[in-house]
Amino acid sequence: MILTCPECTTRYSAKADSIGPNGRTVRCAKCSATWFVAADPDILALSDQENDSGLTAASVAGASAGFKPEPRPEASNTINKPIPAGAATAASIRDNADRSRVRRRLFGVSMIWGVTLALLALIALAAYLFRQPIVERFPSTSTIYKSFGIDVAQNGLTFQTVQSRSAIVEGVPTLIVDGVVQNLTSENMAARPVLLSLHNGGGDELTRWIVELPKPNLAGRGAQTFVTSYPNPPIDASILRYRFADEMEVVTAPDVITPERLSLATTPSPDE
Prior knowledge:
Elements: E1 2-4, E2 11-13, E3 24-27, E4 34-37, H1 41-44, H2 57-64, H3 75-79, H4 85-129, H5 131-137, H6 142-147, E5 157-169, E6 172-183, E7 189-190, E8 194-199, E9 205-211, E10 217-218, E11 223-231, E12 239-244, H7 247-252, E13 265-266
Parallel strand pairs: 12-13
Antiparallel strand pairs: 1-2, 3-4, 5-6, 6-11, 7-10, 8-9, 8-12
């Protein structure tokens, strides 16, 4: 680098790495004047052009123009002199300001994410605690709850468990089904009949029947157990489906009995 004293115009040669990335204050060996030298990338590039004698391309060009270069003390003797504390703090102040801005930005982003996640958690908790009133007010939300495996029903009643097994009753192959119906609300609910149906592997319905719960009402958060049997179930039946029957189905449900026995898989109906 070529450094020129702003007071006496004495020129010096210095290595670029002695200035540093943040620049520094230097002192003239001739008149003791001090000035700040910035780490200009264009100036730093000149250091690659120094020859073995310590002269830069700029010094050689000046000599060829007809003037004698001014004396240049060793850069290390000049640059390494103590720097006044007031001048040396400029770069430190800039660095501290940059770090402070980065910390504030990170803190702001963290606060935004923290508040957002906290609000989402509160909304999810409220949606879970008040799921039954929400579904009763907005029936379409029951599908969303079921996709997350949350027990909820549009009418306040749900199936807690339903199981089936095959047995021989008085010499007749019989399908026995037992289950538990639960009231998800805190209010008393009228017990609803359960509609059970047998289907083949393709999903075609083969037969259906209605089961009444033992008691006409379910207390708040209460449950009732039901048991039913179907003698000689269809030979090609492989699926048992169940759901709550409506009033019209209770009236029109056929009572069909067909032969043969089969072990069945129990699955809820798609609309339950």
